[in-house]
Amino acid sequence: MLLSNLQILLKTLDPLLPILYCLKVVIRACFLDGVLGVSWVEGVEMTSVIFIRDYIQLVFEGINDTAILSTFTLPTVYNNDNAYNIDTKGYRDELCSLINQNVEKVLLLEEAIQLIFELGRTIEISLREQDYDSPEAAMFRRGDERVVW
Predict the structure, then answer these.
(1) Most buried one in 24, 40, 75, 120, CB count within 10 A?
(2) Which residues contact 29 (CB under 8 A, 6 or more apart)?
């Protein structure tokens, strides 16, 4: 009887397993070392910018760990009163000028992820649906952990 009930329970849960697995990954990713996902980069140096066809990866290296923020919605760079996007002359230079700079603050807003660097320069990744170029706007990866927006 117990085995029969267990089999019924497993059949009931079977369609939910992929959802439960994704939920587990997201929950684990949200509490990396007690820090909410991408907030881990606060105080960490951005060590490289990688341009890959239609997306960009921002690489951050801490003392014992490395994280990659892949931006499928191409970010905007703010430097003082100037905004640089993919169509702006000097865009790649502005992004690369942030290499070797520390992230001072990460803001997870409803419509954007903002990485604020020294001297107030900012990388902003839009989370507005109309700005998406793919199913996801960004993915933060550190070790086996993933956070997707």
Answers:
(1) 75
(2) 37, 140, 145, 146, 147
How far from chain centre, in Å, is Cα 68? 7
Provide the domain limits for residue 132: 31-148
**Domain-embedded: residue 82:** yes
Residue 84 within a domain: yes
What are the phi and psi torsion angles at 116 (to 5°)? -100, 120
Q: Residue 61 domain-assigned? A: yes
CB contact at 8 A, 36 and 30: yes
Question: Which of 62, 84, 67 is closest to 75 using CA atoms?
Answer: 84
Number of C-alpha atoms within 13 angstroms, CB side, residue 55?
17
* 119 part of a folded domain: yes
pLDDT digits (tens, 9 = 90+) for 91-126: 999 999 999 999 999 999 999 999 999 988 999 999
